[in-house]
Amino acid sequence: MGILYLVATPIGNLTDFSPRSVEILNSVRLIACEDTRTSSRLLQHYNIDTPTISFHQHNEHKKVEQLMGYLDSGEAIALISDAGTPGISDPGFLAAREAHHRGHTVCSIPGASAAITAISVSGLPSDRFLFEGFLPAKKGRSTRLDAVADQECTVIMYESVHRIEKLMQELSARCDENRMVAVCRELTKHFEEIIRGPVSEVTKRIAEHPNLKGEFVVVIAGKNYEE
Ligand code: SAM
């Protein structure tokens, strides 16, 4: 039987990568990468010269068969995404499911994920939370936003720089002005920033931010939480 390793990669700081991850990536037959060029920076940094193939959301269905070919021959392969944990708003689920169906070993090499990093640093309740990932850009967005506003537990959302201001305005329009939120920007990177406070204030700070670049996770407290 083969082994599929799902290896988490850093979300910004290249040194957030465990010795075991390096050892596994050096030992496997090939590494399936979301983007081989993006991953080459990490692989070069750790002197990993294992062959890579691309495996992204547009070829994932077709490439799963190719990956299974290696596993069916008894080989060990690894899957990585551009950043963070495979399968979390990234390719990985289809390959893991098919490997399980065929009786192969599926093994996680854990590491960073922006969602967990953000809730941990947010100072908002983390005993129960809902991971929303990216909200749909158009169809169904409003329904999902209503559901987020109505949640009793903390909600974690991913958002791009293009829509962060809009998302904050949409949340502000649906939530009590004192609803607590933490916008986590550029986690683990040089310009890491946690903008935390009542949603009305944070929305204003985001709108007035002088240099709103990078990647964002929005963590919003449940509707009954007060501090
Ligand atoms: N698989 C990844 C993980 O485990 O975190 C998530 C991949 S998803 C395609 C990319 C999104 O994750 C970004 O748009 C942003 O919302 C969030 N993200 C990734 N890295 C981040 C960082 N360093 N700081 C803040 N958000 C980040």
Work out the helix count.
8
Termini gap: 52 Å
DSSP strand (E) fraction?
Answer: 15-25%
Report strand order across the widest sheet.
Answer: 3-2-4-1-5
Low confidence ranges: none
The main sheet comes to: 5 strands, parallel
Indicate the CATH topology of the largest domain. Cobalt-precorrin-4 Transmethylase, domain 1
- CATH class descriptor name of the largest domain: Alpha Beta
CATH homologous superfamily assignment of the largest domain: Tetrapyrrole methylase, N-terminal domain
Describe it.
With 227 residues, the chain is α/β, with parallel strands linked by helices. The protein has two domains: 3-109, Cobalt-precorrin-4 Transmethylase, domain 1 (3-Layer(aba) Sandwich); 114-220, Methyltransferase, Cobalt-precorrin-4 Transmethylase, Domain 2 (2-Layer Sandwich). It has eight helices and ten strands. The chain has helices spanning 19-27, 36-45, 60-72, 93-101, 114-122, 141-149, 164-174, 199-208, and strands spanning 3-7, 31-33, 52-54, 76-80, 105-109, 129-134, 154-159, 180-185, 193-198, 216-220. Strands 3-2-4-1-5 form a five-stranded parallel β-sheet, with helices on both faces. Strands 6-7-10-8-9 form a five-stranded mixed β-sheet, sandwiched between helices. Helix 3 (60-72) runs parallel beside helix 4 and helix 7 (164-174) packs antiparallel against helix 8. The chain is elongated. The termini are far apart. The mean pLDDT is 97. The protein binds S-adenosylmethionine (SAM). Residues 11-12, 81, 83-85, 88-90, 113-115, 158-160, 184, 186-189, 215-217 line the site of S-adenosylmethionine. S-adenosylmethionine binds next to helix 5, strand 7 and strand 10.
